Amino acid sequence: MQVIIDRFDGNFAVVELDNGETVNMPRKLVPKGAKEGDVVDIRINEETTLERRQRIENMMKDLWRKS
Question: What average pLDDT does range 43-58 have in this prediction?
Answer without folding.
Answer: 97
